[in-house]
Amino acid sequence: MLQPFSAKRSRAGKSLPALAAQAGIAKSTLSKFEASNGNPNVETLWALAAALDVPLSLLFEAEAPATKLIRAGEGEPMETEQTDFSAVLLSRCPLKMRRDVYRVVMPPGEIRRAQPHPRGTIEHMVVCAGEMRAGPDGQEELLVAGDYYTYPGDHPHSYQAPQPDTMFMMVMEAP
Fold first, then answer.
1. Each residue of 67-82: pLDDT tens digit?
2. Which of 10, 56, 109, 170 could link 49 by a cystine bridge, Cβ 3.0 to 4.6 Å?
């Protein structure tokens, strides 16, 4: 869900006409977006983000729950009018955080129990092939190819592949 542009525009010290001109969009269009009306396409969002000098993801809600599950085919797509392209923002990296990205192939079998990582660590998982059961103790989810799940990595958690040839992308985010 998009954040209101007016607060970001104010922080950037830009008037509505100035931001609209810099982004190459009509003032009336920007006014609609600031009133939470309209549905901007990816090109418009990129233009606004560039004009505000912020990453595109900062135009979306910043508050996130401790866990988030996005099933394959779910999420709010950002579509383009120029090409056959659609993207779903799964997660934005908070300021002053670092991320390590892993591709993991896991054979079926026993549950791998993980001890808590350093305080503030968040894990992000996207299943590429097969199935995974993963998550914090008591909040494990069965995930299939295309599912995204994020959860606190600073609590005990586990991973299990119920079937062979399971592959997932793991992103470890830490302060």
1. 889 898 888 777 767 6
2. 56
